[in-house]
Write a structure and sequence with these properties.
Structural class: alpha+beta
Largest sheet: 3 strands, antiparallel
Number of helices: 5
Strand content: 5-15%
Bound molecules: zinc ion
Order of helices and strands: HHEEHHEH
Radius of gyration: 18 Å
Number of strands: 3
Distance between the termini: 35 Å
Shape: elongated
Oligomer: single chain
Helix content: 40-55%
């Protein structure tokens, strides 16, 4: 039972909404049948499967445009390189996410015994 709970937590961390908050806007989908790949906008995947869906759910649901095989390998896109067209938007989204994460853990010291604050 403890393992099932742990798996559920790990699965939730791969959710599409989490990837989007971290600055990912596209998924790369590789056909397992013919090797063809294409980009899938993360917003489109969220619209169809929900924000809490994980990459595994996307992988099970997609069908290849070329050969019709159902099921794929799905990866989040690589961050864009500095100077490329989407870099600024990616970097701003990433910064927003990092600030939110920092805020989320700001009060951790309050949980520690007196004298053990790390911050
Ligand atoms: Zn295919």
């Amino acid at each position: 039972m403890e393992n099932a709970t742990h798996d559920a937590i790990r699965y939730a961390e791969g959710a599409l909404a989490t990837l989007k908050r971290a600055g990912c806007s596209n998924l790369r989908v590789f056909c397992l049948g013919c090797g063809h790949w294409h980009w899938l906008r993360i917003d489109d995947a969220i619209a169809r499967l929900g924000a809490s869906a994980g990459l595994v759910m996307v992988a099970r649901r997609v069908r290849c445009h070329c050969c019709g095989t159902k099921g794929a390998h799905v990866e989040p896109e690589e961050p864009p390189g500095i100077g490329t067209p989407h870099y600024l938007a990616w970097a701003l989204a990433r910064r927003t996410w990092l600030r939110a994460e920092l805020e989320r853990f700001q009060d951790l010291d309050e949980w520690l015994p007196p004298g053990q604050a790390q911050g």
